[in-house]
Amino acid sequence: MPTPASSLIAELPPRERILATAHRLFYLEGIRASGIDRVIAESGVSKVTFYRHFPSKNELILAYLQQRHQLWMQWFQDALNRHAEAGPAALADALAEWFASADFRGCAFINGLGEIPADAAVADAARRHKTEMRQAIASLLPEGDQQARQAGMLALAADGAIVRAQIEGSPDAAIAALRQMIPLLTAR
């Protein structure tokens, strides 16, 4: 799932330009590493304009997480649909696409919670994201009494693969392990 390109950001209205710049910086470099002054400078807005739209960095962080959630979930559902003929293995195919993207830096919600663990709103955003991710994964499974349990286990395995691919800098081992786990976790 690509982050917004700098060349496209310049053409956006101020609020969207700030948010797109924050999205790129927060995801690629980290929330704490990306200060407000840098977001302002790179988005090309004044401080007054910035604070009119986002009175605090925390409000910008929450707007970023909301936007990231919407964009990522749309991408994820589309990727699952592209690989739907593979059944539950579509999960590994979709994640392999994401891991292969040049700007892959792991899960924005796991990263955000790791950077700001004491913020209840960030934790809530992460929980909502993971719940919807699990629901999307459930759509790959047959309906029945095992669907929710299997979706939960697959979501946990997917999170492990995401973290491993990020840490190792290569998706190969993470995808291989996930591909081996999927049949085990979905066996009746």
TrEMBL record:
Record has Transcription as a keyword: yes
Domain HTH tetR-type: 12-72
Pfam families: TetR_N
PROSITE patterns linked: HTH_TETR_2 (PS50977)
Keywords of the record: DNA-binding, Transcription, Transcription regulation
DNA-binding region: 35-54
Entry annotated with the keyword Transcription: yes
Domain of life: Bacteria
Record InterPro entries: Homeodomain-like_sf, HTH_TetR, Tet_transcr_reg_TetR-rel_C_sf
An example molecular function term from Gene Ontology annotations: DNA binding
Name of the protein described by the UniProt record: TetR family transcriptional regulator
Annotated organism of origin: Chromobacterium amazonense
